[in-house]
Amino acid sequence: MDIFAVLATIALLIALIVWLKLHPFLAFLVASIFAGFSLGIEPAAIPSAIEQGIGNTLGALVVIVCLGAMFGKLIAETGAAQKIAQSLIQLCGKRYMTWALMLTGFIVGIPLFYNVGFVLLVPLVFSVVYRSGLPAVYLGIPLLAALSVTHGFLPPHPSPTAMVPMFNADIGKTLLLGLVVAVPTMILAGPVFASQLKHIKAEPLKTFIPKEQDASSLPGGWNCFITALLPVVLIASSTVLPGLAPSPETENLLQFASHPLVVMLLALALASYTLGIRRGVGIATLMSYYSEAIKDIALIVLIVAGAGALKQVFVISGVSDTLAAMIDGADLNPLLLGWLMATLIRICLGSATVAGLTAAGIMAPIVATTGVDPNLMILAIGAGSLMCSHVNDSGFWMYKEYFNLSLRQTLLSWTVMESIVGVVGIIAVLTLNSVLHTL
């Protein structure tokens, strides 16, 4: 009976978002209440479960996501993203242009949220198209594949970051394993796949060709690269530094310094100085950037909160025991189940973030009972949440309109690229799981 209640809850969530066009946050709240009644939770306990789920999820997440949004806004507004793109293109030359654009999407995509990265970087791709004469789709797909990979797999992006507390995972380990999964995934979905797309003719609208900042006004190349990658280095080091402490006092200090909240605050402070204050950008201007960043991320934070509420209802109901028994009986790898669940929800809903967090809410209670690596579960669900993007995904239409493509061309390039990311991603995750179990 419990499994039918879970399936009915997912169906209701899809109906509320797709058919009634309800905001995902409201849809999650309604679905959480429905799940509570369907799973036999005492009515009086349902509101407190929802509040507990929202509080537990946002308490560990909201600071990191907001600081990450501020950091990404700074990278965009100061011209650091443009400088990184120009430097990589000049370094790689025309022959390896797709690789340069993939690296641009990867490096700039780490601090930038997906939609911001898309709007910022795709016009730069069009500048390269008009200067080089190379096909637009051939050049654009590698960059967009890299943006998708960072969005689905790597903290501090909202979806993987939100799943860390849901699975009691380690954000540093998730990032390190995510990098291992990301590299082969974006290579195969990017430059390798793009080499088969040269025949797609597209004439991007001239409206989207950017007016680039003067080179003399941009920050230095090394400054941009080091600053953009700073959160990655600091978050990754957070898994290693505490273990190297020579004394308990030092270990305690290193644990403080390596906490994700402190890491992101430190990264933002250093970036504010190197890209802002040192280059004459006033504090008031920096604060205006950061205020805009908070507005940009507010809706995502609400979606994460709603997913946390649904997850807590599933936890309190005890449905995890039923799901765990089903997995044992079917002898199905939990990582594959998490990927499949995220894929199905992604196909139905379109939003990668909603698909990932909904699947995580269902899978989180059973991670402990199955003994699966929680960091790998985050990556498996992230891979599934990127699968099969089609007409119900806003990214699908942004790509189609920016590149001025037909529906068929969009399906053959964008949808296939996103599906390659999802398939290669889960293969890499399962391979990592096998390797880790043999060590």
UniProtKB/TrEMBL annotation:
InterPro entries for the chain: Glcn_transporter (IPR003474)
Membrane topology: Multi-pass membrane protein
Alphabetical keyword list: Cell membrane, Membrane, Transmembrane, Transmembrane helix, Transport
Compartments where found: Cell membrane
Similarity section: Belongs to the GntP permease family.
Pfam assignment, any one: GntP_permease
Name listed for the protein in its UniProt record: Gluconate:H+ symporter
Organism this protein belongs to: Gilvimarinus algae
Transmembrane segments: 25-46, 58-76, 96-129, 136-154, 174-194, 215-236, 256-276, 297-319, 339-364, 376-399, 411-436
Record's keyword annotation contains Transport: yes
Membrane listed as a keyword: yes
